[in-house]
């Protein structure tokens, strides 16, 4: 992790999955900040929140993140990748008040946690159980014209600099709602602090890799699926990012703000079990305080954890935790640089429709 203002997040911190299936730059309404345009091109994964932030007029050094959803955690197409570098290299949101119709998030002390014990031997068995749970076909199958709705709570920790003073802070935990059509050509996002209360459109001429239809086309053989993930990430990842880490992050990206068919979800977990360095964690806490077990992988002193309910093995959320001190990381061991929790995942009949609400 690097707190230098000129640091660019590694491509494996963005969506590796963009190269698995067709993707495209997302055009946003006129007047939106460049940051939002970058997010849309990455299809609204959280991973680019580490782009430069500001408080007043002073730049805030971004904290390099291993993921996100998640993600990012995202590999962008060539045009988007060039733009991502421009954003990470200097464009910044203005802190305080409102900007582009949105309200700046309040900040508090950096999030911290107890670091759960990791067990390399326990990962294959736990992932096999998670895969079996994911293969449950009782969830409704979406129909043409419907949308995937996902509500979550998210927050990040980072270094804030005001004048000559720097401190570790975190965003307030805030809500996020995403709607995506099955083909990925239409959608909507509402996120506190990032959009107005009404949200912003996610229309596109081409689908993105997390769309339901795109996920349904992925191979369900774990070996074939993993080979495809490695191939895609190897073609575009930063050489500094280990290929195993890039593959792990890519799978996590496909699991977060998406609704994979049961057989694809099961295959993704079985594929993850084949990646070297993947461990199980005895206790991890999502953004809403729910305790669970985790599947995780460490890279550069940070551990990316996928959190699951201990009994049902349902996916709860993801977090990234500093587990080792490194020369380039100003955050203390135990700091949670990113946390998320899925609060609802459903199929609805229209964009902006909340589950249980008539269309």
Describe the structure.
This protein is α+β, with helices and mostly antiparallel strands. It is 21% helix and 27% strand. The chain contains seven helices and 16 strands. Strands 5, 6, 7, 8, 9, 10, 11, 12, 13, 14, 15 and 16 form a twelve-stranded antiparallel sheet that branches. The protein has a two-stranded antiparallel ribbon with strand order 1-2. A two-stranded antiparallel ribbon has the order 3-4. A hairpin with a 2-residue loop joins strand 3 (98-99) and strand 4. The termini are far apart.
Brief digest:
This protein has 359 residues and is an alpha+beta fold. The protein is built from 7 helices and 16 strands. Helix 5 crosses helix 6 and helix 5 crosses helix 7.
- Report the helical percentage: 10-25%
Beta-strand residue fraction: 25-35%
Low-confidence stretches: 1-19, 21-100
> What spatial form do the alpha-carbon principal axes imply?
globular
Q: If you average the pLDDT, what whole number results?
A: 75
Order of helices and strands: HEEHEEEEHEEEEEHHHHEEEEE
Describe the biggest sheet?
12 strands, antiparallel
Number of strands: 16
Q: Based on helices, strands and strand pairing, what is the structural class?
A: alpha+beta
Number of helices: 7
Instruction: Give the CA-CA distance, first to last residue.
Output: 45 Å
Strand and helix map with partners:
Elements: H1 34-41, E1 53-55, E2 58-60, H2 78-89, E3 98-99, E4 102-103, E5 107-109, E6 118-119, H3 123-134, E7 147-162, E8 165-171, E9 174-181, E10 187-191, E11 200-201, H4 212-216, H5 222-236, H6 243-255, H7 262-272, E12 279-285, E13 291-299, E14 302-308, E15 315-322, E16 336-348
Antiparallel strand pairs: 1-2, 3-4, 5-8, 6-12, 7-8, 7-9, 7-16, 9-10, 10-11, 12-13, 13-14, 14-15, 15-16
Helix pairs in contact: 1-2, 3-7, 5-6, 5-7, 6-7
């Amino acid at each position: 992790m690097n707190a230098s203002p000129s640091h660019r997040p590694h491509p494996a911190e963005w969506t590796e999955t963009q190269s698995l299936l067709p993707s495209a730059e997302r055009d946003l309404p006129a007047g939106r900040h460049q940051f939002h345009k970058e997010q849309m091109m990455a299809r609204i994964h959280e991973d680019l929140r580490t782009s430069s932030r500001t408080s007043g007029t002073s730049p805030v050094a971004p904290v390099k993140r291993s993921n996100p959803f998640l993600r990012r955690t995202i590999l962008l197409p060539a045009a988007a990748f060039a733009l991502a570098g421009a954003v990470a290299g200097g464009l910044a949101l203005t802190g305080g008040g409102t900007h582009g119709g949105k309200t700046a998030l309040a900040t508090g002390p950096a999030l911290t946690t107890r670091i759960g014990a990791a067990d390399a031997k326990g990962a294959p068995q736990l992932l096999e159980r998670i895969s079996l749970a994911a293969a449950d076909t009782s969830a409704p199958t979406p129909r043409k014209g419907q949308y995937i709705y996902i509500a979550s709570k998210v927050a990040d920790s980072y270094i804030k600099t005001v004048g000559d003073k720097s401190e570790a802070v975190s965003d307030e935990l805030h809500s996020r709602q995403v709607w995506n059509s099955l083909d990925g050509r239409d959608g909507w996002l509402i996120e506190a602090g990032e959009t107005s209360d009404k949200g912003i459109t996610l229309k596109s001429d081409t689908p993105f890799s997390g769309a339901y239809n795109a996920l349904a086309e992925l191979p369900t053989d774990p070996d074939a699926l993993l080979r495809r993930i490695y191939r895609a990430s190897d073609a575009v990842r930063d050489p500094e990012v280990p290929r195993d880490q890039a593959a792990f992050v890519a799978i996590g990206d496909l699991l977060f703000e998406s609704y994979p068919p049961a057989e694809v979800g099961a295959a993704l977990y079985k594929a993850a079990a084949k990646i070297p360095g993947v461990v199980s964690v005895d206790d991890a806490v999502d953004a809403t305080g729910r305790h669970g077990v985790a599947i995780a992988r460490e890279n550069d002193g940070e551990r990316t954890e996928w959190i699951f309910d201990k009994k049902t093995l349902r996916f709860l959320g993801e977090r990234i935790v500093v587990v080792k001190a490194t020369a380039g990381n100003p955050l203390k061991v135990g700091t949670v640089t990113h946390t998320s929790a899925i609060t609802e995942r459903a199929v609805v009949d229209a964009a902006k429709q909340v589950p249980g609400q008539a269309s």
